[in-house]
Amino acid sequence: AMAQPGLRTPYRTHIDDELPDVIPLLHIARNQLLRGWESAESGLLLEAVDDMLLADALGTRLVDGSEELIMVILGMAISELAQAELYELLTMLARDDAAVQARALEGLQTNQPRSTDATVRGVVRDCQLFENTYREMGQHPERLMDEVSWDGEVQPRPIQSRLAALRYDADATIAQHRRICRATIARMESPPFDRSDAYEPPIQSSMAYNDIGSTLLSIASPDFSRRADEERRGLVRRRGLMVVIAARLFSLERGSLP
Fold first, then answer.
1. Among 225, 233, 5, which residue's Cα sits nearest to residue 114?
2. Who's near 16: CB < 8 A, 6+ residues apart?
3. Over the stretch 51-61, which tens digit does the pLDDT of each residue have?
4. Distance of CA 103 to the CA centre of its chain
């Protein structure tokens, strides 16, 4: 199942929806890598490479098939871990084994992500998720007026606090939210050297009639450009590993590095 190219993960449509359970996927990847080392210990180096490439494939499928940013980040982390273990295996046990090196190179090439903007796709989905939430808050102001106690029961606040609902404007919040999302995505798509060091989301905090909306936006508007940079570094890391393996194969065949 990990190697299937059509993998799709569920995504939330509302902020209160349950988050995807990512821990089992991480355990699956780690167990697959351990299986690879067990194969290597038994002298089955080709099988060991295949096991580790399968974990790498899981990471790639999550990156290519996920709408949720957290699932994309998990896929990137799994692929990075798998490639590190694969490199260690090739260096320690298969340095002079051309067949094993070639199998690893072929698998890394096959497992390359089809998309190069998965983090942007995840942020777009998160923007839609939060917009739905801001809209529902305007339709159901009791979400702003009630508080949840430790036992999970909703307890109404004092009547004075209910005036807080008058300081939330859903339309103004959504308009600002869309402007922030456009700015965030533009920052993610720009090269790192073209960005300013400090990220200031374009939030208008001077609107007294929507100070609650401005507060919500300031909390839910982090800088995602680092995630886009991590995605690019992951692609470079994969291609760099492929170059190292290709150079090693050339050396094994010709007797010297190119």
1. 5
2. none
3. 999 999 999 99
4. 28
Structure tokens at 54: 């399968």
Nearest to 211, CA basis, from 165, 175, 148, 159: 165
pTM for this model (two decimals)? 0.82
CA distance 209 to 224: 29
- Report pLDDT digits (tens) over 12-52: 777 777 777 778 889 999 999 999 999 999 999 999 999 99
CA distances from 107 to 52, 55, 163, 181, 192 (A): 10, 11, 61, 36, 30
Spell out a b/e string for 30-66, using b for 16 or more CB atoms within 10 Å of the CB, else e.
eebbebbbebbeeeebbbbbbbbbbbbbbbbbbbbbb
Residue 226 identity: R
Residues, the chain, total?
258
As a whole number of Å, the end-to-end CA separation of the chain is 39
